[in-house]
Amino acid sequence: MPKLRVAVIGAGIYGFNHVQAYAWNRDVDLVAVCDFKQSCLDKVTSTFDVHTYTDVKTMFDNEEIDAVSIATPDAFHLEPALAAITRGKHVLIEKPLATTLEDARKIIAKAKEHHVRVALDYHKRWDPAAINLRNELHLPSSGKPIRGYMSMDDVIDVPTKWFDWAHKSSPVHFLGTHCYDQIRWYMGCEVEEVYAVGSKTLLKSMGIDTYDTVQAFLKFENGCYWTVENSWIFPSGFPKANDGRTQILTERALLKADSQNRGVEFYNGSKLRTPNSYFIIDNNGRPFGFGIEPINDFVYCLVNNLPFIADANDGLEAEKIAEAVHLSLETNQAVNIAKG
């Protein structure tokens, strides 16, 4: 069977993980990488023998491509997605699908028009702890879910040092959509109503006009209520770049997951570190973990014509919640989410 010819658009911090995953996938021929930053492309070519481009159109004109990963910044998924889709390329898009419902619906409509498949990289669906919790939640012995809590937070280095586009995103889009998708996956139904509060203080004082932290309250169709907390201003001294907690109370069970300390601790003269040994780690040069598996599954599902674990509709539903959260922040009112 011929290999799937794949390209990556966006080779920054997370896009490089896509490059690595495809380079090691036996069913893939990584043919091209596109990024407007030459420094990102230089990093790629220092490790992998692959054609590089700074322009998407030129890449598509010059290369035979079957599928594309889009790992551009949150607010810049639409243009490369449409460029790939209109040329008949299947796409894997880093979360979120888009930062507006209008853009999300444009991507989905164009994919239907061109008979193209769209997958979303909501990698928490591949987290062994999340899978274990979901399996337990769905046992008849656990009973009906009544109340849930989830937090996901990043250190302040993320919006201030890791990239320069935080003002075009928010904790809702960068972190919250992970939570919204994961909770939908747990619940097996959709959100009916959202109410949210948030603050813009610390980052705004640093010239970055976005929310420091957002708390959202979600009512699901099954009657379960969730509190979701997201921020990206944890102190730099926190032992990990991110923190995450989940708690679900059901009729007959209490389920908890701690995504911060995965049981490994490193100490040196200045700081404790609690690395996530299950996310993305180097295994003799090969990337390994649940941060890589969605990329490999994208390939597997295309090769075997199987449904994606997270698809464009999942991206759309998560964006509906995100947009409702932002509307609630602006109006200080509860927001109903319409179906369709």
Report what the structure shows.
The protein is of the alpha/beta class. The chain has two domains: 137 residues, NAD(P)-binding Rossmann-like Domain (Rossmann fold), CATH 3.40.50.720; 177 residues, Dihydrodipicolinate Reductase, domain 2 (2-Layer Sandwich). Helix 5 runs antiparallel to helix 11. The two termini are 39 Å apart.
Ordered list of secondary-structure elements with their pairings:
Blueprint: E1 4-9, H1 15-24, E2 28-34, H2 38-45, E3 51-53, H3 56-62, E4 67-70, H4 78-85, E5 90-94, H5 101-113, E6 118-121, H6 128-137, E7 145-155, H7 157-162, H8 171-187, E8 191-199, H9 202-205, E9 213-220, E10 225-234, E11 242-250, E12 254-258, E13 266-267, E14 272-273, E15 281-283, E16 286-288, H10 293-303, H11 312-331, E17 335-336
Parallel strand pairs: 1-2, 1-4, 2-3, 4-5, 5-6, 7-10
Antiparallel strand pairs: 7-11, 8-9, 8-17, 9-10, 11-12, 13-14, 15-16
Helix pairs in contact: 4-5, 5-11, 8-11
